Every structure is written in structure tokens, then in C-alpha cells.
Amino acid sequence: MGKYILKRTGYMLIVLVILSFLMFMIYQLMPNNRAYTDAKQWITDHKQTINPAEIDQKFEEMYEMYQRKYGTDTDNRLVRYLRWVGVYPLYDGSYSGLLQGNFGYSYEYKDDVVNIIGAPMRNTVIINIFATILALGITIPLGIICAVKRGTIGDRAVSIITIVGYSLPTFLIAILFIWIFCSNLGWFPPSGMKTPGSNYTGIKYLIDTLYYLALPLIVMTFCSLGGMTRYVRASMIEALSMDCIRTARAKGLREKTVIYSHAWRNALIPVVTLVVGWFIGIFSGSLVIEEMFALNGMGKLMITALRTSDFDVIMLLQLFYVILALLGNLLIDIAYGLVDPRVRVNK
User: Fold this and answer.
1) Which pLDDT value is given to residue 198?
2) DSSP, res 100
3) Does the domain formed by 118-172+226-343 have CATH 1.10.3720.10?
4) Fewest CB within a 10 Å sphere: which of 58, 179, 197, 275?
């Protein structure tokens, strides 16, 4: 397994280099010139101290200086890419790329990109971890019960409810829940992450944050119930029809042992793909939920960056999602081996 992981890691690095190069080439086609923007801003800030006849010359000097600073003083796209990564020196021989921690600058937030993703990442992880744990804690037992009691009234009722929940779009469910729990019942606030104007600390801050995040968590959990419950149910029904399950029952094993020790292990193989994918998706954010409930998360940050053409933020987030996807595929393959010894790779 160790050799397999090292081999897969090598393939992942190759894929990461190829995809990052393609994204960088596409990014270069965008109407964005950071050196020009900064040089223009410098001239605007110092216009009163510059002789009007020397403005154009000073602009060219500043433009060249910023080009050298950002590594765009050449038309060679490959050299630009290598400088962006941080493996090719700049004009003065220094290195300033991704490997050195230079992830770009956000003109929308007037700060380095690495400084503006901290709070959205934290909020997204907190929200999605709770939503994922709640969803798995409900869907897995519910799917198993429906599979064991297949054809009963309870199974049919759950199937109808899950089909309805799976068919409705997320934004419609969010609007429905806001109308019920905010407009009619008044139990939860419709948007935001804290009480406006509050400066709570400690336990009060935690309670206030959980109060504002309660409804988004309920919506995210409800939206996840339909698909996962039906997936677990289908996997368990298939596992319960296997010959090994019939043999276990013929030996006189207890029904709980048959279900949870034998059938569930076999049903986990297809389910683990979704489960690991869910946990990897924790970091990507929920675009619809974060936008509708005004949550400061990764999804909202991505939408804002796209709307304002904040290209450095877009590039970093896209690269981050590529890395997540590659790690997710590796973790799924490893999880297969942990769940079922028959698919373990030893060479």
C-alpha cells in the first residue's frame, strides 16, 4: 500500500503541474495587467509631486519596475508560469511564487490573497463539518432501516419524502425554510452570522454564532438526506441479497450481526465514495446556501471574485479545488482498501 500511495502521489503531482499550467495559460488571456494597474495607481497617488511633462516617462519607469517585480517583464509564457510557481528567478535573481508563499493580491479587498481566505475558510469548514456529520448520522441509519424493512409503510413513506427532497432545488428549499422558520414562526434570523452591532466574546459569541448558523445547517442537512438515504438503501438491499448473507443467516447468526457485521461492510464499498467526497467538499463551500444566508464562506468568496474579476483570488481557489479533487480520489482508493481487503493494493 505504501508503494501504491507514493506512486499515486507522483501521478498527482504530474496532473497538478499540467492543470496548473493550463489554468495559468487561460488566466493570461484575461484582460488583467497587475503591473499596469499598480503603475497607474502610483502615478495617481503622486501626480501632484510630478512634473506634468514627465508623467508619461515616470509611468513607463514604474510600469517596468512593477513588471520586473511581478515577473511579467517577458512575453515568454513558460517563463511567466515558472516564475508564478516560484522555480524560476525574477529580474533581480530572487524567487517570489507559490512555493515562496506569494499567492497574489486582491484588488477587491486591498490585501494579499492569503490573508483574505482565512475567515471564509474557517466559516465554511465549521458549517460543512456540522452539516456533514448531521447528514451522515441521519442518512446511514435511516438507509439501513429502510433496506432491512423493505416494502413496509415506513420504507415507502421515507422513499416518497427523500424523492421530494432530492428533486427540489436547494434555493427553493432554503426559501421555503426561511418562510416557515423566519417569517411565520420567527425562530431563526434570515441571514447573517452574528447579531448586528454585537461584540460578544466567549460563550456568548459561540451561542450567538450557533443561533445564526442553525437554519443554514438545517437546510444543508435536509438537502443531503434524499440522495444519501436512497444510496445507502440501494447498497444495503444489494448487499442483503448476496450469497454470503444467506449463508450467515443459515448458520444461525443473530440478525444484528448479519446486518452490521456482514451486509454493512459490503454495502460500504459504493457508499464510501460519497462519504469521502462529502468530507473533501467541506472545504469548497456551498455556493447557494452561503449566498442566500449571507454567510462569509468560500462559496461566497468565489462568487464575489468572479463578479469583480479578482483574478488572483480565482486562480488560487481553482488551484485549491484541483488539489482537493486529487486528494479526494486518493483518499477514496485508500478507503476502499480499508473497507474491503479484497481491493487492497500491496504492490
Assistant:
1) 72
2) G
3) yes
4) 197
